[in-house]
Structures are given as structure tokens and as C-alpha cells.
From TrEMBL:
It comes from Methylocella silvestris. Its main location: membrane. The chain crosses the membrane at residues 6-26, 80-103, 109-131, 258-277, 289-307. This is Secretion system protein. It is a multi-pass membrane protein. It comes from the Bacteria. GO terms for cellular component: plasma membrane. PANTHER family: INTEGRAL MEMBRANE PROTEIN-RELATED, PILUS ASSEMBLY PROTEIN. The lineage of its organism: Bacteria, Pseudomonadati, Pseudomonadota, Alphaproteobacteria, Hyphomicrobiales. Signal peptide: none annotated.
Amino acid sequence: MLPFGPLALITLLFGATAIAVGLVISRSAAAEMARRLNLVAISENRQLPADTLAELVKTRTKKFDAQARRIFTIGIEHTWAMQASSLALVVIAVASAGGAWALSHNILGFSRVLAAGMAFFASYLGPRLLLARRQKKAERQFMDLFPDAVDTVARMIRAGLPITAAVRTIASEGTVPVSTVFAMIADELKIGVPIEQTLDASSQKIGLADFRFFAVAVALQYSTGGNLTATLETLAQIVRKRRALRLKAKAATGEIRVTAYALGGIPVLTSAALFVLQPGYLAPLWTDPRGPVILMTAAGLLLLAYLSMRMIMRGVTAA
């Protein structure tokens, strides 16, 4: 018997088919646009370069990937660092749905309707967790590199260069993800947006307190005058001290994290060992109607305990 029933297959394939059809349509539109541009170029005795066509298709693909990511980030405020292709999102969604169906229908014995609902929920939750994880990772990398970027801006201003030139330099020569953020600022400055408005919009989009301090300091000093270099150097020192404090708090809570991992892993490892050594001992969890209820209750309590300890630790390390 296949692990997927007809209703589950319809649920799994619906999202994948929609994204695949959208990708085909997007690429077909890009190819059609490239063909028309090529015809216009030929009519003017010019030939459109191949790298221009490739860049056009790449741009359209990026736009489609961004639209696919927007589906899985509904309700998330900060999404500037979420990067994943539509193909990767489809693969993760299908794998998550398949795992949820196998667990809920084949192992826990839930009905097909309930298992299909859980599979659909997992197909949405899997890509969403992946994107959220990449966002958090990029934010940590940004905070590690941000003090050096502020020092670079301060040194360039001390050398007599304007703040706009410093922003463009970091955007072109900096390290990702700092260069990505400063590139967004540089692009808006290039089209004539005032620097105060650009920094305010970028700080709201990034959502990091230390970058907000930078935006406010630069905007105030740029509009009212003053020693911007000294302000930025002080800000860089404050950011480094805040990072050192967070690392110290993380080290102090290391024992709590290990304890949480151990307490969460012991029931799983013990159940796996019993399943291998004495399969009949755990058989009532599958054969008895009350077994799935016990399994779901135990999993929910373990998840609640883990989330509680994680919330406590993040409350300490987020200072």
C-alpha cells in the first residue's frame, strides 16, 4: 500500500503544480520579451548581446522566486535576507507534506482527511521555517560585520569623502549581508531619494536596533551638522560592547541549552531503542485507539517544554 492516498496526492501536487506553472509562464514571458528585443535590434542592424538576454532571463527568474517566497512569508515583518529558489521551496514543501502524511496516517492511524490537513499545513510550514532560519542567520552575520562597516564609514568621512560615497563603497566592496543592505541604500540615493528618508525606510525594513541607531545618528548629523565621525566611532564601540554582552549571556546559558537538548532527546532515543530491541513493548501505541492520543500529547508537552526554555534563553541573550 502506498503511503499517499488520492486526497493526499491532490493536496501535495496542487501547490507544486501551481508554482511550476508559474515558473514556466515566467520563463516563457522572459523568452518572448528577449525574442522581441532581438527583433528590434536586428531591425536597427544591431544584435542584442547574449549576456543581455541571459541577464534579462535571470532578472525575471529572481522576480518569480521573490513572489514564491512571498507566499510563505505572510505575516513576517522582516524578510530582506530570505533567499531561496522556487524549486527549493517546492521540494521542501513536498518533502514536509510527505513526512507529515506518513507520520499522521500510516504511523498514528489518523483519518485521510485529518492527515491531508496536516500534510497541507506541513507543506506550508516547512519552507516558512527554512526562510525564517536563513533570515536569522543573515541577521547574526550582519551584526557581526556591522561595526567594521561603521568604522569604514567613519574613516572615509574623516578622509574628506561624503557619506554617500562611503555607502557606495561598502555596497560594492563589503561582505554579504552588509553589502546587500548598503546596496539598497545606494540604489535609492542614486535615484535622488534624500538620505534621511532612505535611512529611515531601510532601518524599518532591516528591523535591527543597532542599525536603527546608525540611521538616526547619520540622519541627525547630516541634517543639523556636527562631528559625524566621532558619533560613528562611538556607535561602533557601543555595537561591539552589545555584541560582547550577548555572547557572554549565551555562554552563561550554555548549560541550560545542553540540558534542554538532553531532556528533549532522551525520550526519543529511549523510544527508538525500545522499538528496535522490544517492538512488542510499544505495540499498544499503534494498536490501541488511545495510543495516538498519548503520542500526540507527549510530543506536544515536549515541544512546549522546549519552546519555554528557548524563550527564557532568548530573553537573556537578546539584550
